[in-house]
Amino acid sequence: MANGTKAHRPSYQTRFDQLEKLIREFERSTAPLPGILDHDERSVFINQLIDSERRNQHFERMLDRPLSSNVADPHSIDFDPLRAAIYHWRAGNKDESYWLIFQFVHFGKHPTAGWRYVREVYGRLNSNPIWTWEEISANTPEFRLWLGESQVQLLRRDEPRGFGNHRKYSSLSHESHRGTASVFESYVEWVMGYGSHAELFAQYSSLPSPQERFDALYKAMKVVLDFGRIARFDYLMTLSRLDFLDVKPGCAYLKNATGPLQGARLLITGPQSTTRAEDLEKVLKVFAEVTGTTFDVIEDAICNWQKSPGTFRKFVL
After folding, report:
1. What is the largest CA-CA distance in the chain?
2. What is the pLDDT of residues 72-94, one digit of tens each?
3. Is 273:265 a contact under the CB 8 Å cutoff?
4. Which of 185, 214, 241 is the last residue of a domain?
5. Whether 54 and 145 share a structural domain
6. Residue 23 pLDDT > 70, yes or no?
């Protein structure tokens, strides 16, 4: 365990020292942070900030690498929805890229089953035609029927299965109002109401800043079923990280949050706090400015930190 003066990886020590110095500057100039008075808790919090920054750098590295067509083929063991989205983007098939990012967020990556759900649903259980954007947008009623017919095979227990950590309460149901069929239909209806993803996002292009565009889309996406606060935030942040859309959060979106709100309260006003999200956001805005951290990093870090304030644990989506 780090002792309050070290990063959890030696190679991150320079960034750790920098953040530690900037956080102390924030405490002197703006407000104390009672949640990290303890040396170990301070160390864990800084390491979570670094880990969140490293996740962003992972996206940057993906954008720099060459990709084979296998990553975009759900029938291949090399399939990866993020890399598939990049592959299609480079090929000019942007609707498919956006659609893959939506599925990446909807299904998530299960800790042991990996991309199984997105691979098997998008890949139509290793048959053709796969559920591309062109196919799903033209045949959503057929998708619901297919999903119902495929329940037994999709839910089989001969290998690990499940949604990712952020989506663990989601459902593959073809009947439920908030199951995968209904979620997909609501997303298709949202996009096709404008004609395409490009036409949808163009409606917000005149807004003067990436932060305003993020906020407007975040609110507009309420029409997508089962895409609450965290799913909408993750969807827009993934598009931003991959440079598919010029949007950035202008706050941590703590309203209606669970982990991030609890983390912000613990950090800023201490245990048992009931401070309003709006008041916490004001403090975090200054924190972001002083420390040079972005709101997606802060949101991710405080959520993960509050789960284990005194011992560093690495978390995945």
Report:
1. 62
2. 999 999 999 999 999 999 999 99
3. yes
4. 241
5. no
6. yes
* Dihedral sign for Cα atoms in the order 66, 71, 72, 73: positive
- φ/ψ (deg, to 5) at 20: -60, -45
**Domain identity same for 216 and 152:** yes
- What is the residue whose two structure tokens read 């956001």? 281
Residues 192, 275 within the same domain: no
- Please report where in the chains the tokens 């690498």 appear, as a residue: 65
In a domain, 313, yes or no: no
The residue segments making up the domain with residue 26 are 10-60+251-307
> What would the pLDDT profile of 167-222 be if each residue is shown by its tens digit?
888 999 999 999 999 999 999 999 999 999 999 999 999 999 999 999 999 999 99
Environment class of 146 (CB within 10 Å of its CB; exposed 0-12, middle 13-18, buried 19+)? middle
Same domain, yes or no: 161 and 121:
yes
Which residues 6+ apart lie within 8 Å of 205 measured at CB? 213
| Count: domains in the chain | 2
147 to 117, 154, 190, 223, 249: CA distances (angstroms): 12, 9, 21, 22, 35
Pair 183, 258 in one domain? no
Residue recorded with tokens 């309460």: 169
Angle between helices 229-241 and 210-220 (to 10 degrees): 140
Kindly state whether residue 89 falls inside one of the protein's structural domains. Answer: yes
pLDDT score of 317: 53
What is the per-residue pLDDT across 139-163, written as a single tens digit (0 to 9) for each? 999 999 999 999 999 999 999 999 9
Residues 296 and 257 in one domain: yes
| Whether the predicted pLDDT of 1 surpasses 50 | no
CA distance 217 to 196: 15
pLDDT of residue 6: 75
Assess contact for 277 and 302: CB atoms under 8 A. no
- How far apart, in whole angstroms, are the C-alpha atoms of residue 133 and residue 130? 9
Q: Is residue 96 scored above 70 in pLDDT? A: yes
Q: Which residue has the tokens 């709100």?
A: 261
Same domain assignment for residues 236 and 268:
no
- At 266, list the tokens: 């613990």
Q: So what's the pLDDT on residue 3?
A: 45
